[in-house]
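ENTRY TYPE: paired fold submission
RECORD: A
CONTENT: sequence, then structure tokens
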Amino acid sequence: MPASPSTRLTVRVGLAWSPFDRESVPGPGFWRAVEAMEELGYDSLWLSDTATRPGPSPLPVLAAVAARTERLKIGTSVLVAPPRQAVLLAKELATIDVLSGGRFLPAFGLGIDAPVELAALGVAREERAARLEEAVEVVRLLWSGEPVSYAGRFTTLEGFELTPRPVRPRIEIWLGGASAPALRRVGRIADGWLASFVSPETFGAGVAAIRAAAAEAGRTIDEDHYGTIVFAAAGRDDLLPLGDFYTTLASGLREDDHVAVGVAALRPLLQRFRDQGATKFVVVPIARRLVPFLHELKREVVDPFELTA
């Protein structure tokens, strides 16, 4: 179901470091890319989170990015919340927000539903949703700045007051996921939705489901709080190194529904999602010569799209 906003919404395009990159991060190539993102005026940088698959742990890397940038927002796409103790999570994320001067954008999720990942993290599949929801509640309470007493299934607090607190009075927490329970959860407790590996049409149906769940819970989600992750490859050959890992994650999804091959293909893909209600975009750039590709994307696609979408 397409969105039908009554006023112009803020459209922003950020970037993600490729979760398929098997190179050491942060390394020289990573920092050259971060410097380019900052200088070119990209909205944000996002890092994904898995324990057993390639890619760095997002929180220490984002803390380092916060220290080396002044304007670039930083986010998690998405942070696996269930195995993390909620109080430590609240403190770590608040610390990153302080380091960044209030530029942190947290998005949480259940994590990938793979046997090796679940075994490594030690969280029973049937507990993941409950742990995620409790983490969202506890983190929000601790970020409020008030002493917190709380008796939950996994967390107990007695008059505990968190320091440091985030820079902003209230940080919004977005959630990922595209299953029916995940969409209902977004509607019930989240501030926004960050989708991944969905087609534009599936995204639109997800927005409608979230709106319905939010209405049933007596709440609303801002119309510009719906986002998605898409991929942009400089050319066909740039996709080849992704191999089986990417193919497994994208199983059953048409490539042209979430991957733009060539700069010219990105804006039509973004527009298809925009027509279905998306206003926030996280583009995963895949290119052997990444920094020139970032320049081209910003000039040819991102600037005109943010201006007119």
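RECORD: B
CONTENT: sequence, then structure tokens
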Amino acid sequence: MAPAVDQDWLELPSGKSGSQYECHTLYVDGERNYTYLYDKNNYHPLWAAYPLSAKHMGNLSRPSNWSYNDQFAEGSQPDLCSGSYSGNYSRGHVIPNASRNGIKAMQLQTFYVTNSVPQIQDHFNGGIWQELEAALQGEAKSQTIYIVTGSVLNKVGESKSVSYTTPGKNSSQRCAVPNYFYKVALKVRMSGSTVISAQTIGFWFEHRTYSDSYTNYAVSVDEIEKYTGFDFFVNLPDNIETAVERNSSWSSFDSF
């Protein structure tokens, strides 16, 4: 499949057709921050794709406010500037604050309301999900890695019921609550501008509480592609992509 935007960036997955979906890239001083695919009907970012390296991470204080994204009309965005979702869901970042808290302008773009999904806070967003994010951030301290983080209402061919919540203090908007969350990550070795080898890993979670380790939910990228219908890391050479997207071992990814 073709990448979601016409670029050769290694993090890019395929896109999705339909007028309710829009794909955009956010930049700071000409440097890409992240690319995201947004569902305007459900106020739901389907995924965010981004490179992650040591330069992106730091110790900048966490912003206290969320803001609207000027790539959309405000009415197409969840009204999260005045508060979180109803039903005790947190404003869950798709690309995390801690993956961009080394560059202030990039960090502020992670606090766009289009980068938020309703997430169970205790024992998910503040637990296993945060631990996985920290593990990937640790991997990126020594080399650039490429990540896609996404949320799913239904697997391909599934008709599971979807819950809705309202954002902010007085909004009547209906924001879909994901039934699943996932991350896929890529490491590469290069010769000049050519990828000569790579390794990938995926993680798939039902949206519920957890008390165990994220490593128990490692799966192959191939499996997540079957669940979502997206083709991940489409700019890898085909022979490398086919081989490495079968891996489901965190230790194999960690040691690459």
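NOTES ON RECORD B: The mean pLDDT is 97. Residues 128-139 form the longest helix (12 residues).
STATUS: closed
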